[in-house]
Design a protein that fits this description.
Blueprint lengths: L1 E3 L5 H15 L5 H15 L4 E7 L2 E9 L2 E7 L8 H11 L4 E5 L3 H9 L2 E7 L10 E6 L1
Parallel strand pairs: 4-5
Antiparallel strand pairs: 1-2, 2-3, 3-4, 5-7, 6-7
Helix pairs in contact: 1-2
Amino acid sequence: MIRRAAIDDAPALLAIWRAAVEATHHFLTAADIDAIETQVRGYLDSNAELWTAERDGRPVGFMGLDGEEIVSLFVDPAAHRGGVGRALIDHALARGATWLGVNEQNPGAITFYERLGFTVTDRSDLDSEGRPFPILTMRRT
């Protein structure tokens, strides 16, 4: 089930974010992850448009939307390859999303998005916070 995330979901979503990042973002140091976690905590507590995927009544993944952009997508590693990410992307597409940014150093995510019909259209040497983590813009046409 996919539903709009509630503010009470924030602790569970933060735990999903941390587990997913530790499992897939091998280019980040522990200090990088700790620093970014502070920003993510604020994002999850904001009025951002967040959607969560649930299994057995508990969140197993979430995504953020901002207009046509998929701002974030994180799935509990225990649920990887179980259709959660695809369901969230399908939900985003149904809501009009057409593009996203993904870390160039996360080849698994790039492959996932390519399988769903996204293609790389641009590259930035820095992430949105100016850190040296290249970002690929991917669009679905």
